[in-house]
Design goal:
The complex is a heterotrimer of chains A (354), B (393) and C (305). Chain A is mainly α and 354 residues long. Chain A is 69% helix and 0% strand. Chain A has 13 helices and no strands. The radius of gyration of chain A is 21 Å and the shape is globular. Chain B is built from 11 helices and 15 strands. Chain B has a 7-stranded mixed sheet with strand order 12-10-9-8-6-7-15, with helices on both faces. In chain B, strands 2-1-3-4-5-11 form a 6-stranded parallel sheet, sandwiched between helices. A two-stranded antiparallel sheet of chain B has the order 13-14. In chain B, 37% of the residues lie in helices and 17% in strands. In chain B, helix 5 packs across helix 6. Chain B has 393 residues and is of the alpha/beta class. Chain C has 305 residues and is mostly helical. A two-stranded antiparallel sheet of chain C has the order 1-2. Chain C is globular. The termini of chain C are far apart. Classes of the chains: A mainly alpha (354), B alpha/beta (393), C mainly alpha (305). The interface between B and C is large, with 63 and 62 residues.
Chain lengths: 354, 393, 305
């Protein structure tokens, strides 16, 4: 079975040197951009105007910037859904499936209780979304806790099942009369409010609140301390009387709930309906971000932002130089390559883990 | 470890070189499938001459047109047909500038893509995919000075209109050809989703086939994806294994379905793009494609001279918006003549595709004697006519 | 249900299962050396795109198949560089390779979208020539299909009857011990990855060149992940992988048969079946403690530098 012992680095690389964190992430991104520039050159494109377009599309206008924030919402949440269980040495590659279940549960509420007022319906949808993700995370965590099977492979399999459940429900029961491949549009009461006339919705607040809670709990509570000790050495933690199994179950469910919340935010805040294959891999992107950030809360925020800039700006590359949109995945891959390959950095920047 | 670094450098270099070759190879690869001359009378392909090199547009383009596609523009299918129509605008009016975005799969992507196009100065948007209708409609309200044309939908607005061909009548003709060619009396139909339009196409196809061969059955298999080629191959094989001997499809790119049919020695009837014929040199019956270049050009010209108005435009074979591909080598003259005659009858109104009485699979009368299915009602069809096997919803 | 329909399911299963079996065999080899390649999906995509492109350019599907194989091997070596040389976490590196494959395959494949290729020739299954036409058309296969079962047996032989296979499995079980007995775990892991990549490339080549005869972005549609699941289902054994693939592809083909027979059952339920089955099997094995997984699977070999 796959070992969990090499889980995500449990600690921030630098404890309180924020400047160094920025420089470090900056160098990672810079190296990735350099590698991608090579690709652009090979395909006959000049990287400089291409990058200018990319940044113009994201920082050049209020609209572009708002789109960056919009695309950051789901991946910020799914990254947290990876980073949290990583602290106790569990690997959640199931964010994708948990996201779908959250979306499905929330959609159920949106369609079934559409006559309720928004102040009641939205909290129901949030709770159901969290519940959906938590249920999907509970099963693998339970199987792991009773020693049956490792969580990595079960969550992967459940990722494959979740979109099919969405398909089953949408095509079988929930579709609108005219378009069988999607549900009807949600009523306004089932939509998260949006801000400033953009597509930025309340989901961003969810993301930031969860991020703040994660940071606070890890840093200032006994739970954080105990989780760190489980992540450090399970046997030692067990000897010290920390209830390891309940922790595993609860943390994994919470993490699934966070991913489920991301799914709820997408269907309620972004799409306003459910499409069977709505996620372009948000769960996996969350995994990537959590890794890029080494599980550090500030880093997660930064890297979620960087990934969003790449994804939003990549759209512009397609329009201006005709590169397929999917090519932007290379830039994501390169940034993770750089982090994983641990290039030798100047001494003052070198972390001990990364 | 030094050695491994070296090896790695070589590997990355090699992979990059492969992709470089791939990119450079573009111009030398197989020549563009040009629109073949039609064998059926009165379906002239819109002339795309006028290489128009005069007007040097020094002071910038006279109109920037943005076009979004739901799949790759060289798919030999729907997206390519749309792309060719957009390219025709540029050929006919050389001072326009075109911005295109392919593989815009979903509604969310369409919104940001069109926003970016408008930010780049686009004053006219062609949203060509089914899923782009509502994003475009929403943006039409936000940008009243930009003209939006959506292809294949039904919504209308002050600066938002819809355009499409009239495939159902042509599907009826395709059905006639298929009904005459089949020996097993089983026709296969690979469809992406059970959508209203797909149901209409299947029904027209089945009615056409039944008009010449009452025993014919149309078997429908869904892939649940517009461009899932592995699923398309699996579904096509399944249909052929059910003794189907003519295959047709309503998916984005007909390439996989037609290639699979050809490899199994089964006839195919193409849809979306006349270029589909290249995939079935031997077992091709015929096909239909969209040729909207002239209409798109006309729409763009009305935007330029300020006379554009929202018109719900549906245009068929006789308007040059659709065309029929040449017949394949195995098709007897008798079939060619019959299809031509049916076409003439459809145009003269002697044959009406959806004229009652028409019953659904369960025998319920859906269109009464003396009634006709209207264009508007077609968007709400969720039933198959008798003789179709498969689920309509 | 007629005999023809059932034979049709068999034929469909063979056609669509071949690429999956190659990919699964590749992952078996890789995992036997203690490496999980979560990026198999990306490897398959890059190979499928390259194979298709080379077939268009050379008009020779055999060259395309070879190119796809080589590409699979090379992409796996990049993965190997990360996890063996740089000692990166396998899951994260696999995910990076997945994203890498999404991007690179789109880039490589773009010029060839919608291009016509010359596919692999098909030959009648020996001994069936005299059957009526409606049966014979079910059993005309290309050479990659004929080769896939022998390949599974060959991989079994390679793993269990050769010195190389012994070394590979030894490294997968315990790299430190293997090192102590004079083997070079890093090199052997690289070799395992390369062989696994070749096989994955072969599967991808069959998918794009022989089965769909098309290239489209994301065309593997999760087959890489399915292969990883099937490896576990088959308990890391090449012969059992055949059974796993038959069950999986058979379920897909059977579901399509039901659909085109007019039986109204949601295809999504049947699509879920293989995954639910794999999960169940995993749980049962977990319960009986009969693991056959390579002991160091997924673990970083820290080496002795």
């Amino acid at each position: 079975m796959i070992q969990s012992s090499n889980a995500l680095p449990a600690k921030s690389i630098f404890q309180n040197k924020y400047l160094q964190i920025f420089v470090r992430y900056g160098l990672t991104v810079l190296l990735a951009l350099l590698l991608f520039a090579g690709i652009l050159l090979i395909t006959g494109n000049n990287p400089i105007p291409s990058y200018r377009d990319l940044f113009k599309a994201t920082f050049g206008s209020a609209y572009g910037f708002s789109e960056v924030i919009v695309s950051m919402i789901p991946i910020l949440l799914t990254a947290l859904a990876v980073a949290l269980p990583a602290r106790i040495g569990m690997i959640n590659v199931g964010g994708e499936g948990q996201l779908y279940l959250g979306a499905i549960f929330a959609t159920f509420a949106a369609l079934a209780f559409k006559d309720l007022p928004g102040w009641l319906l939205l909290p129901i949808m949030v709770l159901l979304g969290i519940l959906g993700g938590a249920v999907w995370a509970f099963l693998p965590a339970f199987f792991k806790a009773i020693g049956l099977v490792n969580e990595t492979i079960t969550t992967l399999l459940m990722n494959m099942i979740a979109p099919k459940i969405a398909g089953l429900l949408v095509f079988g029961f929930w579709h609108s009369p005219r378009e069988t491949n999607m549900t009807p549009n949600f009523v306004d009461a089932a939509r998260l409010p949006t801000f400033f006339g953009t597509r930025i919705h309340l989901g961003i607040v969810f993301g930031l609140v969860v991020l703040a809670l994660f940071w606070f709990v890890m840093k200032y509570t006994r739970w954080g301390l105990e989780m760190r000790s489980i992540g450090g050495n399970v046997q030692a933690a067990r000897r010290n009387g920390i209830p390891v199994k309940p922790y595993m179950l609860i943390i994994f469910c919470i993490s699934g709930g966070i991913a489920g919340l991301a799914g709820m935010a997408q269907v309620s805040g972004f799409y306003g309906l459910l499409i069977p294959n709505f996620s372009p891999g948000y769960g996996y992107m969350g995994f990537l971000i959590s890794w890029l950030a080494g599980g550090d809360p500030l880093g997660i925020l930064l890297m979620a932002f960087v990934v969003s800039v790449i994804m939003t700006g990549g759209n512009m590359l397609q329009i201006t130089i005709g590169l397929p949109y999917a090519v932007i995945n290379l830039l994501l891959a390169f940034s993770l390559f750089v982090v994983l390959a641990k290039p030798v950095l100047p001494k003052f920047l070198r972390g001990k883990a990364a | 470890m030094k050695r491994i670094h070296g090896i790695l450098a070589i590997i990355i270099g090699a992979v990059l070189a492969i992709s470089a070759c791939a990119q450079q190879a573009t111009p030398t690869a197989v020549p563009e499938p040009t629109t073949p001359p039609t064998a059926v009378p009165a379906t002239a392909v819109p002339p795309t001459e006028a290489p128009a090199t005069e007007v040097p547009a020094e002071e910038g383009p006279c109109l920037i047109i943005g076009a979004t596609y739901g799949g790759p523009i060289m798919d030999a299918g729907y997206n390519q047909a749309m792309h060719e129509a957009i390219a025709a605008i540029k050929e006919n009016i050389s001072c326009v500038s075109i911005i295109e975005a392919e593989n815009v799969y979903d509604e969310a992507g369409a919104t940001s893509t069109i926003e970016n196009m408008i930010a780049e100065g686009a004053k006219m948007i062609f949203a060509t995919a089914y899923a782009h209708q509502y994003p475009a409609l929403g943006l039409a309200e936000k940008y009243p000075d930009v003209v939006f044309e959506h292809v294949g939908g039904w919504e209308m607005g002050a600066n938002f209109a819809n355009i499409f061909g009239k495939p159902p009548d042509v599907w009826y003709m395709m059905g006639v050809a298929a009904g005459m060619m089949t020996e097993t009396n089983k026709l296969g139909f690979v469809a992406a989703f059970p959508l209203a339009w797909t149901d209409v196409f299947v029904n027209a196809y089945a009615l056409g086939a039944q008009s010449v061969n009452p025993d014919v059955e149309v078997i429908v298999g869904y892939t649940f994806g517009w461009g899932d080629s592995a699923k398309e191959a699996e579904t096509t094989n399944s249909l052929i294994n059910q003794e189907v001997d003519v295959i047709s499809m309503h998916v984005d790119s007909p390439q996989t379905v037609i290639s699979t049919a050809e490899s199994r020695g089964v006839y195919s009837i193409g849809y979306q793009n006349l270029a589909a014929q290249q995939f079935a040199p031997e077992y091709w019956i015929t096909g239909q494609g969209f040729t909207l270049g002239d209409k798109f050009t006309w729409l763009a010209s009305t935007v330029m001279d300020g006379t554009w108005e929202p018109i719900f435009l549906r245009c068929g074979l006789s308007d040059g918006c659709m065309a029929i591909a040449p017949f394949g080598p195995k098709v007897p003259q008798e079939v060619v003549d019959k299809v031509a005659q049916v076409q003439a009858d459809l145009e003269s109104g002697k044959i009406v595709t959806f004229a009652g009485p028409i019953k659904d699979q369960d025998g319920n009368v859906k269109i009464k004697e003396g009634e006709v299915l209207t264009d508007d009602a077609m968007s709400n069809v969720d039933w198959f006519v008798q003789g179709v096997v498969g689920s309509p919803k | 249900m007629s005999l023809l329909a059932l034979l049709g399911v068999l034929s469909s299963t063979i056609f669509s299962g071949t690429s999956l079996l190659y990919a699964t065999l590749g992952e078996v080899v890789t995992e036997r050396s203690g490496t999980v390649n979560l990026g198999l999906e990306g490897v398959l995509l890059v190979s499928a795109a390259t194979g298709y492109g080379v077939t268009v350019l050379t008009a020779n599907p055999l060259v395309g198949v070879l190119a796809a194989m080589l590409t699979g091997g090379l992409v796996n070596l990049i993965f190997g560089y990360l996890i063996i040389t740089r000692k990166a976490n396998q899951l994260a590196a696999g995910l990076a390779v997945m994203f890498f494959g999404y991007g690179l395959s789109a880039l490589i494949g773009k010029p060839f979208v919608g291009k016509l290729i010359k596919s692999l020739p098909r030959y009648m299954f020996p001994g069936l020539e005299d059957l009526p036409l409606r049966y014979t058309s079910l059993f005309k296969f290309d050479f990659l299909i004929y080769l896939v079962i022998p390949m599974a047996i060959f991989i079994w032989w390679l793993l269990y009857r050769t010195r190389w296979g012994l070394s590979l499995r030894a490294v997968g079980e315990n790299a430190e011990t293997a090192y102590a007995s004079g083997r070079n775990p890093g090199a052997i892991k690289f070799q395992g990855l390369f062989v696994g990549g070749l096989l994955a490339g072969l599967g991808a080549a069959h998918l794009s060149i022989a089965f769909t005869m098309n290239w489209a972005e994301y065309m593997t549609g999760g087959r890489g992940f399915i292969a990883i699941a099937l490896v576990i289902f088959s308990k890391w054994h090449p012969i059992r992988a055949i059974a796993g693939v038959l069950v999986f592809s058979g379920a897909v083909a059977f579901q399509l048969l039901l659909q085109v027979s007019g039986v109204n059952i949601s295809p999504f339920i049947l699509d879920m079946f293989p995954f639910v089955l794999t999960l169940t099997v995993l749980l049962i094995w977990g319960g009986t403690r009969k693991h056959s997984a390579p002991a160091t699977l997924g673990r970083v070999y820290e080496g002795t530098e």
